[in-house]
Amino acid sequence: MGSQEESLSHRGLESMAEFAQMAALMKVFGNIYNKEKNPDGIISLGVAENSLMHKELAAYYENKIQVSPFSLTYGEGPGGSSILRNALASLYNGKFSPTFEVKPEHIFVGSGVSGVLDLLCHSIADEGEAILIGRPIYTGFSHDLFGRSKLKLVPVSLKGVDPMSVEAVKFYEKELQIQKNHGVKVRGMILCNPHNPLGKCYTPEAIKAYASFCNDHNIHFISDEIYALSIYSTPSNTTAAPFTSIFAVPGLLDLIQPHLVHVLYGMSKDFCANGLRMGCLISPWNKPLIPAVFSVGVFQWPSSLADIAWRTILTDTTFLDDFIEKNQKKLGEHYQILVNWFKKMDIPYVHGSNAGFFIWVDLTRYLEKIKLPEGDDGKVPGGKTNLPWAPAGAQKRDAILWDKMLNGGVYVGTSEMFFGEDHGWYRFSFSTNTEELELGLSRMEKVLKGVENDGVVAGLDGLKLEEGAKN
Length: 471
Ligand SMILES: Cc1ncc(COP(=O)(O)O)c(C=O)c1O
Description:
By secondary structure, the chain is of the alpha/beta class. The chain is 39% helix and 12% strand. The strands form 4 sheets. Strands 2-8-7-6-5-3-4 form a 7-stranded mixed sheet, with helices on both faces. Strands 9-13-12 form a 3-stranded antiparallel sheet, covered by helices on one side. Strands 1-11 form a two-stranded parallel sheet.
């Protein structure tokens, strides 16, 4: 008789281990707040979901989604219907000023950007090869790169240099050399523009500098533009760099071999529809790539209902423009609610965000209030990041603070989840409805004031969710 583990492939066992973090989060999501059904549940200010337009979108879809007999068939095959790919090409041509015409045949549609990035990784790199990304990093990239294709995410430490600056590129250069010296082949880099978790956009100058870097080393330049239309302005923030798609950067194609340039875009963020699982790859110049992606893309064949949902809104330009405008206005208002709270609490945060649904926040002063038990080495077993430069105990204190917040009924993303340079930083999302946002912040205030005033002498309390997920 063999063990259950022995019944799995080596790949399967690696995936099982990788699932641990997601499993912990799924417990949080299994006990999520609902005013009527689960008022003691956790308020999520941690997930990048924008519910500010959910009511409008749900009402719109109630009248608009029509299931035809054709949508019950395999249709045109994987990769998205031609109507949807035409509509996406029009979106890019109409709203992002590309320096060339984006065509439907440049586009492959799959189940969400995570899924499409997995397909891209599978097609451009072999197991063990690396992709560079500057810290802090959207947490899901590590899974998207490694989950199936087993690529290595190499976080690039920027040592306090502005990640949006041209200067940051030299750290990529350095990291690439380190990987080379260790015999690891770097295949590409991802620029998250607009940036998650910093909520900022890259200037054309910075994008050009990254393009030259990629070209010099013959590596892929993947531009994740999933927040491209989730841009807002606030009275306190009028000078932030606007969003520029990599396709709109003048002179870019003189700097990089075009076949190395790819864009990722999706429905989850700008269309407030994470649950519909739609995303696309736009790769205009790499001829062999699209069939390679199609081949594995059979496993990510989007549902025709989701295809209809995306193309319906994209082709209804009056509704679309109104939707984008209202969404951006609401994002600006909610950004301000969160910033006002930081000011009231005297909490430092990264200023000047103008994109996405979140703010990167410095809670390090609360870590100092947490005393570790005698003899505790301050490390968290299975911790995602090992930061050799972190002060002793910071990782454990960070985990304890996060635990306190969860037990206080509110979830936010930790620095460790986002490969931050330092412990004690958190990503707060502001795109939940106003009542929930305010309740979440009042719960958070109670937790942080308790930590500040009374201190904490403890180990991990243990997630109350361990007792069993509700809802
Ligand atoms: C930068 C970025 N890329 C990709 C994704 C994944 O998007 P999707 O829901 O389309 O898989 C997210 C989701 O949070 C994200 O923030």
